[in-house]
Amino acid sequence: MKKLLPIILLIAAFSVGCLNVQHKTYTFKLNDDGTGSGSIFFYNIHSSDEEERDVSFKDFGTLVTDYLEGQTFEGENPDWAITKKDLFEQDGVLCGKVEFTFSNMGAAKLYRTADCNCAPILLLPGAIDETLMEHNGEGVALGDAEVVEWKPDVKEITYKTEVTADTENVRNLVEDYKAWKANHK
Fold first, then answer.
1. Is the pLDDT of residue 13 over 60?
2. Nearest to 73 by CA among 40, 48, 27, 26
C-alpha cells in the first residue's frame, strides 16, 4: 500500500479540474447597525482543461455536490449565513447566485475609518483577490492602489470584479446544467 500511495496521490492531483467564473457582481444592503444582506452573482461559470483533458463533467459535478448542495461555499465564507444558492442559464452561459446575511460590515470586507455612522465605508485594496471593474462608490487614490469609498449613509453597495479575462479556451458548462436540471425537476 505504501508504494501505491504516491501513485494514488498523483492520479488525484491530475483528476482535479478547474472551475472558474468570468466575473462576479457583489451587492450588499446595509442596515444602520452594520448588519445586512447580500448576494453574489457569478457570470459564466466554466471549466478549464487539466493537462489537456476535458474535465468539465467532473467540474460540474463538483459545483453541484460541493457548492450548490454541499457546504463548501459556507466553509469558505463562515461569516455569512447563506439563505439561497441557485444555478441558471443567462446569455448562453452558466450563472449562479448566492444570497446571504451578515452580522457586521467586516464580514462583507467593508470597513469604516471610525467607529461611528458618520465615517465613510471603505473597500480596501487587497480585500478581494479579483480585479475591480466597476462600483457605485467613489475611487480614492492611495499611493499605487485605489480605495473605494461610499458615503456614510449609503444603503446599497455594489461592485463588479473580473476573475477570468481569457474565456476563449474554457468549457461552457451550460449543457451539463441543462442535462442536470432535466433530471432534477
1. no
2. 40
Side-chain-facing half-sphere of 61: CA atoms under 13 Å: 7
Is a pLDDT exceeding 50 seen at residue 122?
A: yes
CA distances from 65 to 5, 59, 62, 76 (A): 26, 10, 5, 15
Least Cα distance to 125 among 147, 140, 144 occurs for 147
Q: Tell me if 18 sits within 8 A of 50, measured CB to CB.
A: yes
> pTM for this structure?
0.85
Cβ atoms of residues 110 and 157 within 8 Å: yes
Q: pLDDT tens-digit profile of 144-173? A: 888 899 999 999 999 999 998 788 889 999
Local structure of residue 30 (DSSP, 8 states)? E
Count of other CB atoms within 10 angstroms of residue 131: 12
Cell of 103: 452580522
The closest of 88, 89, 101, 135 to 33, measured between CA atoms, is 101
The pairing of strands 145-150 and 121-123 is antiparallel
**Per-domain boundaries in the chain:** 18-109+154-183
- The cell for 82 is 447563506
